[in-house]
């Protein structure tokens, strides 16, 4: 049995952030398999073109009520879940109830847990084969830097006006986002870890979607390494995050 309640009653504004996660990820993956255990809600999803991976780790303290009797999974349509979220009213809290083996989960909204005014029965999808998707827990990167998420989003948006590709260059203590026609320097890094130059080029259309996670977190941590996909991490609270992984674009002659 899974019973979870989210609200915006605390400084975490957890419900709004969870809605923003769904709104962002649904542009990449229509269906995701949520995993519930004693400590967190999580999912690992590949986009519909099999180019990027999205990982959510949502720790139980972000929930007002978190009751999970045993590890379980359910697969839902994010587009349908997004439509349900749009039916909630300002000030509502949300509950999610699911019993393993059932073909539906129940999402409800209302001013209190004892007064749910809107109830939705969401049909579940066939389980996805997520065992083939893995992101190692001990990933290490040679180049990492933390920036204001809105600033990073603005730079990517500016690049998208000129090109379908964006090169992220890390050198000395600086990070640049550039294309053939423009270059933008990220300012005021909160943290940085690199002492050599490294640059890779990525598809702007994916970076543009990733950057919508600025609604979830004030910070964006950029990780790069020579032979690894780009990793963008948006921290949520102290122990949670929404992360995106994207392989660099290959040169035409590769």
Describe the model:
- The protein has helices at residues 14-25, 78-85, 149-160, 204-210; strands at residues 2-6, 31-36, 40-46, 52-59, 65-68, 72-77, 93-98, 104-110, 118-123, 143-148, 165-171, 174-178, 183-185, 191-193, 198-203, 219-224, 230-236, 240-246.
- It has 254 residues and is of the alpha+beta class.
- The strands form three sheets. It has a nine-stranded antiparallel beta sheet.
- The mean pLDDT is 90.
- Residues 18-126 form the Proliferating cell nuclear antigen PCNA N-terminal domain.
- Residues 138-249 form the Proliferating cell nuclear antigen PCNA C-terminal domain.
Short description:
The chain is an alpha+beta fold.
Please tag this protein with its features.
alpha+beta, DNA Polymerase III, Chain A, domain 2, 2 domains, nine-stranded antiparallel β-sheet, 18 strands, DNA polymerase processivity factor activity, nucleus, DNA sliding clamp PCNA, DNA-binding, Pr_cel_nuc_antig
């Amino acid at each position: 049995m899974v019973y979870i309640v989210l609200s915006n009653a605390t400084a975490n504004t957890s419900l709004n952030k969870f809605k923003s996660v769904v709104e962002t990820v649904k542009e990449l993956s229509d269906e995701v398999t949520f995993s519930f255990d004693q400590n967190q809600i999580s999912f690992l999803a590949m986009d519909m073109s099999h180019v990027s991976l999205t990982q959510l780790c949502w720790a139980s303290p972000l929930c007002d009520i978190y009751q999970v009797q045993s590890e379980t999974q359910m697969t839902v349509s994010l587009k349908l879940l997004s439509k349900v979220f749009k039916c909630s009213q300002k000030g509502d809290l949300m509950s999610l109830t699911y019993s393993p083996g059932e073909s539906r989960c129940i999402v409800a909204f209302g001013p209190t847990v004892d007064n749910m005014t809107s109830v939705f029965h969401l049909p579940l999808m066939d389980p996805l084969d997520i065992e083939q998707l893995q992101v190692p827990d001990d990933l290490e990167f040679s180049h990492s830097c933390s920036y204001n998420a809105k600033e990073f989003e603005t730079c990517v948006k500016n690049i998208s006006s000129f090109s379908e590709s964006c090169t992220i260059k890390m050198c000395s203590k600086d990070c640049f986002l550039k294309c053939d026609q423009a270059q933008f320097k990220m300012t005021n890094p909160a943290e940085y870890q690199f002492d050599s130059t490294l640059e890779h080029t990525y598809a702007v259309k994916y970076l543009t979607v990733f950057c919508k996670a600025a609604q979830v977190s004030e910070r964006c941590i950029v990780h790069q390494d020579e032979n690894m996909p780009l990793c963008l991490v948006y921290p949520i609270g102290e122990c949670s995050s929404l992360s995106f992984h994207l392989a660099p674009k290959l040169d035409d002659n590769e």
